[in-house]
Amino acid sequence: MENLAPCPECKCEYTYENGFLLVCPECFNEWNPAEVVGKEEEASVKVLDVNGNELTNGDSVIVIKNLPVKGAAKPIKAGTKVKNIRISDGDHNISCKIEGFGSMGLKSEFVRKA
Q1: Is the pLDDT assigned to residue 96 strictly greater than 80?
Q2: 29 and 2 together in one domain
Q3: The domain that contains 32 carries what CATH number?
Q4: 0.90 exceeded by the pTM?
Q5: Pairing of β 111-113 and β 102-106
Q6: Rounded CA gap, 13 and 5, in Å?
């Protein structure tokens, strides 16, 4: 039996070939295995903190200045530690949960790696 790559969407191991494409039986994703390698290289966007350190998913960061939050009575205070961040696309390139505020996006220019 041939060992095929897992699904890039849901990571299912039970993929099968359909012509030149690979198909996932769980999420019905179809992809060309030659194109996936190129997308992984493009997806490796580097996000840097204020000091130039590279941030990755799961890192902890510290807010370096008071950040006002729209709709909240108080800002996020400088020195607040944020655990288990996720790197995302867009202007606010860090997705996280902050205790007392909930889920939100932060800009990497306002944090430093803990």
Answers
A1: yes
A2: yes
A3: 2.20.25.10
A4: no
A5: unpaired
A6: 7
The domain of 22 spans 1-44
Q: Could you tell me the sign of the dihedral formed by the alpha carbons of 63, 58, 108, 104, in that order?
A: negative
CA angle centred on 100, ends 81 and 49, rounded to 5°: 30
**Secondary structure (3-state) at 106:** strand
Rounded to whole angstroms, the Cα distance separating 110 from 106 reads 8
Q: Is 8's pLDDT higher than 90?
A: no
**Proportion of the chain in helix, strand, coil states, percent, rounded to 5:** 10, 30, 60
Phi, psi of 111 (to 5 degrees): -135, 160
Residues 70 and 109 in one domain: yes
pLDDT digits 0-9 by tens, 17-41: 998 899 999 998 998 887 765 555 4
